[in-house]
Amino acid sequence: MSFTTAVIPASAGPLHATTPAAPAPDTAAPVVAPPAPGGAADVAAGSTAPAGSVDSPVPHAPPGLPRPAGLSTDVAHGGMPDINFAAYSHAAEVLAEDMPRCGIDWSLIAGIGRVESTHADHGATDAQGTLIDPIYGPRLDGSLGGNQVITDTDGGRLDGDAAYDRAVGPTQFIPSTWAQYAADGNGDGVADPQNLYDSALTTGRYLCEGGLDLRNPGDVMTAILRYNQSTVYAGKVLGFAHDYGRM
Predict the structure, then answer these.
(1) Which of 25, 66, 224, 244 has the fewest CB atoms lying closer than 10 Å?
(2) Sign (positive/negative) of CA torsion 103, 66, 128, 28?
(3) CA 92, CA 105: separation in Å to the nearest integer?
(4) Is 196:119 a contact under the CB 8 Å cutoff?
């Protein structure tokens, strides 16, 4: 499978709007009230269809790899729902074909998903992986300690805010970065940041950027710090990824 990328040209900005000293949260990124239905943020990158539309032409979301026998479905006990594992492992399968040098493992993508949104709020998605309640980070206007100021880059189309950006989706991309790396993970022709399959594949693609070899621990750390410039954050992601990889 090849990537389906967003058609809006944009320069890559920082994926997370945090300073290096900002620690990552233990649980999900802040979730705020979603934009009103029919608003500017309802259209996914590269599509004229509403983000989160259930009218997908794909009869079934990709199954991913066989689930490890020891991997619980309970997030509170170190596991993840079936649809999260399917999305993360499918992303790793696609990247093994499209970016073979990278060697990314599903467990690293899962570590990001766990830290960023507690696996999309414990797998609260429809059958195609689209979030039931979209996830938005705080307004990046400098009012929250540790966050950069990022003025609007998408006209509010993805985040519902035409003045400042907000990170969007279960792996928390800012709109300008989503526009550059967005990928269609479930094959419905839409790259939607509020879809678990799309966000997982986009996350993997971003982590693999620059010819990194994620079989190499040094490159893994480089990739995570590119995602969020916090060693505390990196330690949490690596901890979850290690635990998942042992299953």
Answers:
(1) 66
(2) negative
(3) 6
(4) no
pLDDT, tens digit, 9 for 90 and up, residues 138-156: 999 989 877 889 999 999 9
Distances (CA, A) of 162 to 91, 119, 150, 187, 202: 31, 28, 11, 29, 23
Sign of CA dihedral 194, 196, 198, 200: positive
Distance CA 116, CA 122 (A): 12
- Exposure string of 101-112, with b = 16+ CB inside 10 Å and e = fewer, is ebbbbbbbbbbb
* Alpha carbon distance 186, 129 (integer Å): 8
pLDDT at 130 over 90: yes
Mean pLDDT of the chain: 81
- CB crowding 181-190: b at 16 or more within 10 Å, else e: bbbbbbbbeb
Stretch (H or E) spanning 34: none
pLDDT digits (tens, 9 = 90+) for 173-204: 999 999 999 999 999 999 999 999 999 999 99
Q: How open is the CA angle 165-170-172, to the nearest 5 degrees?
A: 30
CA pair distance 174, 136, nearest whole angstrom: 10
For the chain, the straight-line distance linking the first and the last C-alpha, in angstroms and rounded, comes to: 27
Tokens of 42: 């309802």
Single pTM value for the model: 0.78
Give the pair of three-digit tokens for residue 108: 């690293």
Q: Report CA 116 to chain centroid distance, whole Å.
A: 8
Tokens 């998408």 map to which residue?
154
